[in-house]
Design goal:
Elements: H1 8-16, H2 25-45, E1 55-59, E2 65-67, H3 68-81, E3 87-92, E4 99-100, E5 110-118, E6 129-137, E7 159-165, E8 169-174, E9 180-185, E10 190-195, E11 206-208, H4 219-230, E12 237-238, H5 244-254, E13 257-260, H6 273-286, E14 290-292, E15 312-315, H7 317-327
Parallel strand pairs: 3-5, 11-12, 11-13
Antiparallel strand pairs: 1-2, 3-4, 5-6, 6-7, 7-8, 8-9, 9-10, 13-15, 14-15
Helix pairs in contact: 2-3, 4-7
The structure holds 6-O-phosphono-alpha-D-fructofuranose.
6-O-phosphono-alpha-D-fructofuranose binds near residues 119, 210, 243 and 244.
Amino acid sequence: MQKGLTNLNRYLLEEQRKYPHATGDFTTIIEQIAFASKIISREVNKAGIVNILGKAQSVNVHGEDQQKLDVYSNEKMISAMEHLGKLCAMGSEECEDIVPIPDRYPKGKYVVVFDPLDGSSNIDVNISIGTIFGVYRAVTEGNKGTVEDFLQPGRNLVAAGYVIYGSSTMLVYSAGNGVSGFTLDPSVGEFLLSHENIRIPEKGKIYSFNEANFEKWTPEIQRYVRDLRTKSDRTYTGRYIGSLVADFHRNLLKGGVFAYPGDTSNPKGKLRLLYEAAPLAYIVEKAGGAAIDGINDILDIKPEGIHQRTPLIIGSKHEVELYRKYMKGEA
Ligand code: P6P
């Protein structure tokens, strides 16, 4: 497909035509997520000018200070989708409970999960941050979504993606047929196809761990990181931004492994299964990579709660599968 001249809407319609029974519901959802991300991008890019930096005097369900842009982004994602008539509920990392569709709007057969602005602690130091999203078909009867609709393994995702607000704003998504990236041209307000059929290198040369946690890791994790440095057939470099979407996006394009493992004080790690790990695991597998919690594929894990955390090791298949071997005592 022609790069630059293919905008997201055209791409979505041409993808939709490949599925004769497609209703277009899903296309509409992705278009609206793209719309919300343009609004968020505008605010992120002027955050330094307009006084929307700093804390919103509120905290999210995890007791983390909510930055004003967190709150703003969450509101934009919800308002962009709630009226569509395509969803029966939404789940947001910033909301304690599932977000119902107001009675005044028609309901649909999908649920969308999202982290509206991940890495928000980096907002006021101008480091790339991102929105992460996933789309599931509802599994419960009736048109009011229930928690059960969200407690699905990532294997059930029908689409997932992220938007990175960095040197440019890019939307990367997959609906199962490869992974494609669209770069926002702010002069026309369009996401233009820039990265068709993204494939992650089978082996990488980047590892992304927060090594300040080294002493809290289990001996197996410590040995894995040490061996990457000293016993590999290649020279690795460490790259860790502390913004999941930015670390993930770089490794997706260049190859490498990102890990936020559990540790002795927090076996489940920090990242959320539903809003962060599962959507990115869907993307990385569609791009030829892998994502595990150390032992299990992330996409095979059925959440027990909508804010469940999980260790996340994600990226090039070689480095992720090697990690799994270390955890199983096979390497
Ligand atoms: P740490 C940002 O706060 C975030 O949720 C992810 O975007 C990022 O990967 C991780 O936390 C960084 O955590 O403990 O290394 O600062």
